[in-house]
Design goal:
Rossmann fold, 2 domains, globular, 37% helix, homodimer
């Protein structure tokens, strides 16, 4: 059975949207995801440089993350035909380890937790496919990398790109 | 640079020895590591079946683990010539995620925490070598597996075996 590794933030979790919401509350701004097109948070507003670390240090940040549309249904369908691994960079924010685990158990309870991988550098992952929103993660991956569209990567070319989970379903299941 | 993945329990941490110590205190037994030759804990005393889960649920269990002799010095030397990843099964005991991270930062502070991998199934690891005390982990690994001697695996054959960290140094550094 072929193996698909799937990133968490911006692929199955609305990571940036949560950062925007907390920032808007604190600074009385009204940034939306639309404002992030082609930009990282810190390029939208330099104050994010300090703030993101602060938000992530709070355990509830990860527990509150919204699930990206259709990801649950499509991953459940994919898991009948592929070995699914959730592969997330967690070592930069050790406080995220436990809440990321809890979030996965809550929202993707149909996956075996033996298939969760918390790492730093994704070049250590041995899989056939990696679905990730970060081009540099795909660059060092040895299988087929797939760029999952997120606001920040909209203008980047040179990767196999899928824009949403319905496109992922069509790519892997030909449906 | 070639990449060596290194397991934690029984390879760099005295996991079983800590279990024996806690068990001896509780049941007034006097088991030693010698009694574990060729056996798993549960084969030595069936009461370990319940007890190990109970010990591991306590965060301090991992923080208290002793470092296996010469592992720090040899891994530091290896890291000049190889990319070193510490790869540990942590998903069965989610309470171990944070204390395993802390233990590594304390005892292997010279390693970059981006090179820590917490997973379930080690077949997901892409590396040239895996040093592990558990034969089944080596069976699904696609690189060169190396069985690190622990009491429980003493009688198992069919693997490249290294008995201690000085032998690891000779194998990889030809010293």
């Amino acid at each position: 059975m072929e193996r698909i590794a799937i990133d968490m933030d911006e692929v199955i979790t609305h990571f940036s949207a949560n950062c925007l919401e907390l920032f808007n509350e604190e600074f009385n701004t009204d940034y939306t995801t639309e404002d992030l097109q082609g930009k990282l948070l810190v390029e939208l507003d330099a104050r994010f440089a300090d703030k993101v670390d602060q938000y992530l240090a709070n355990e509830s940040f990860f527990l509150d993350l919204q699930v990206i549309r259709d990801s649950q249904e499509v991953i459940q369908k994919l898991s009948a035909h592929y070995d699914i691994y959730i592969v997330t960079a967690a070592m930069e924010f050790p406080a995220s380890l436990a809440p990321k685990y809890q979030w996965l158990k809550q929202h993707f309870s149909f996956l075996n937790d033996k298939n969760f991988v918390f790492c730093g550098d994704k070049s250590i992952i041995h899989a056939d496919y990696l679905i990730d929103d970060t081009p540099s993660c795909l660059d060092t991956f040895t299988g087929q990398g797939i760029l999952f569209t997120a606001p920040h990567n909209r203008d980047i070319s040179g990767y196999t790109r899928l824009n949403n989970w319905q496109e992922v379903a069509r790519y892997f299941l030909k449906v």
